[in-house]
Amino acid sequence: MKVRYSYLPQQFKNCENLWEQLKHFVSGGDFTLGEPLKKFENEFARLIGAEYAVGVNSGTDAIKLSLKYVGVEFGDEVITTANTFVATVGAIAELGAKPVFVDCDDTFCMNINQVEEKITSKTKAIVPVHFTGYMTDMRKLCPIAEKYKIPIIEDACQSILASINGKNAGLWGISGAFSLHPLKNINVWSDGGMIVTNDIGMYNKLILLRNHGLVDRDHVETLG
Fold first, then answer.
1. Gap between the Cα atoms of 212 and 26, Å rounded
2. Domain definitions of the chain by residue range
3. pLDDT 10s digits, 154-211
4. 66: closest CA among 165, 157, 166?
5. Euclidean distance between CA atoms 156 and 138, whole angstroms
6. Which InterPro entries match (predicted)?
7. Cα angle 166, 69, 218; round to 5
8. Cα separation of 118 and 5, whole Å?
9. How many CA atoms lie within 13 A of 186 on its CB side?
10. Model-level pTM?
11. pLDDT top residue among 75 and 18
C-alpha cells in the first residue's frame, strides 16, 4: 500500500461540521481580530502556560514581530542555528540584520557550546530553534543570554508542547513563536502563527505591530 508523506485532506474528512461553524462565523462578520481570535488566543496561552498570546499571519511573522519588538534593525546580528527552515533566517534578514549561525548538536538543535564565541557588540537577540519536537537545551542557553543581557526569542514553530522539566517551549525566552501552518500539529485552514509571552509590555506592543500600529480606525501609534 502506498502511504503519502503528508495527507492534508485527511484533516477535513469530517468537514460537514466545519461548514456549519463557518456559516456561523461569516454571518457575524467578525473576519479579522475579532472575538473568535481572542478566544483562540486565550485558549492557546492557557495550553502553553503563558500569560498572553498574540495571533499573527504566520510563524514567520511571529519571529519577525518579536525581533522587531526587541529592537533588531539594520546592522545588528542575531544568533540562530544553521539547521532550520529558511523562514527563521528570512525574518532576521527582512529587518536588515545579519544571521549568525551556530552549528547543531546530536539533537539537531543549537549547539550551546558554540554560542558564547559568536556573541559580539552587535548581537541583539538569540533565536534558538526547537526542531521537530526536540528542544534546544534552554537550561544552558538562558544563563549565557542573561550574562550578556541578550533577549531570547524561541522559534518553537515545530515543537508545540515540547518541554524540559515540565516547562514548555516558548516560556524560556522573552517570547515564543509558533506556526499554525497546515502541516503543524495545531493548524488552521490556510496559515497562521502565534506569539506567547509573559511580558505585558511586549504583549501590548505586539497588538499594535500586528495591525499596522493602529490604536483604532483613525489613530496610528507606531509603524507596524
1. 24
2. 36-214
3. 999 999 999 999 999 999 999 999 999 988 888 887 789 999 999 999 999 999 999 8
4. 157
5. 12
6. DegT/StrS_aminotransferase (IPR000653), PyrdxlP-dep_Trfase (IPR015424), PyrdxlP-dep_Trfase_major (IPR015421)
7. 125
8. 37
9. 20
10. 0.91
11. 75
Sign, CA torsion 50/70/177/19: positive
| Cα–chain center distance at 172 | 13
| CA-CA-CA-CA dihedral for 30, 35, 39, 45, to nearest 10 | 100
Residue 144 CA to residue 150 CA, distance in Å, equals 8
Residue type, 109: C
Residue type, 189: W
Q: What is the pLDDT of residue 175?
A: 99
The answer for residues whose C-beta is within 8 angstroms of residue 150's C-beta and 6 or more apart is 119, 123, 124, 125, 126
Q: What angle do CA 202, 187, 197 make, to 5 degrees?
A: 15
- CB burial readout 68-97, b (16+ within 10 A) else e: bbbebeeebbbbbbebbeebbbebbeebeb
Q: What is the CATH number of domain 36-214?
A: 3.40.640.10
- Reading the block at residue 40, the C-alpha cell is 483562540
